[in-house]
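[Q] Does anyone have a clean structure-token version of this?
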Amino acid sequence: MEIIKFDTQQELDAYAAELFINTVNEKPNAVLGLATGSTPIGIYDKIVERFNENKVSFKEATTFNLDEYVGIGPENDQSYAYYMNKHLFSHIDIPAPQTHLPNGMADDLQEETTRYDAMLAAQPVDVQLLGLGHNGHIGFNEPDVNLSGGTHAVKLKEETREANARFFSSMDEVPNYAITMGVGSILKANTIVLAVRGADKAEIVKEALTGPITTSVPASLLQTHARVIVLLDREAGRMLD
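[A] Here you go.
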């Protein structure tokens, strides 16, 4: 595991963006695993900036997103499909059929999770971007006695819904369920990039990266992966030597 601390968020964003850009430049048909939330926005901005400078093309690349809310369609501005189009897809040259997210509006969620896992098996992820939840979740894999390996529907913990409530008009609008890649699916990526910022994440960063490997902190399972690159701002990494 490689841990890198940055003095500024801008430096972290630029470094993470270059990891993805270099992957695509070296392998034009690379498969990229993408995340949502507040942390990746600056990373996507840097990718778009470099694309506009003709430093990279995504015409042959494929993307898979970690998760999507259940019951929210892609036209809803709080859906992750909408987020990805707003912050990345509409600004680069990747063909829409090569971008994939779980379908939170599927009539049969079990069938949808099976479909998504089959696509992931056919096109293994080269580099996967992750954020870190305050309770140690990655994707929407919440702390539990047991964790699902493959893509699955999950009931969101109240602390996760509360953390995401800032994006909605009221707590009542925050979905109770989501579809997410499982921890097993995430760990199949060749390289994992974990980006975390903010003093409020310092304690869970230390617990996830240096504490015992346990399903009560899903991110701790990243310790078992052969190639994890952790990108932290100074505040998020302040409890690490």
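[Q] Thanks! Anything notable?
[A] The mean pLDDT is 95.
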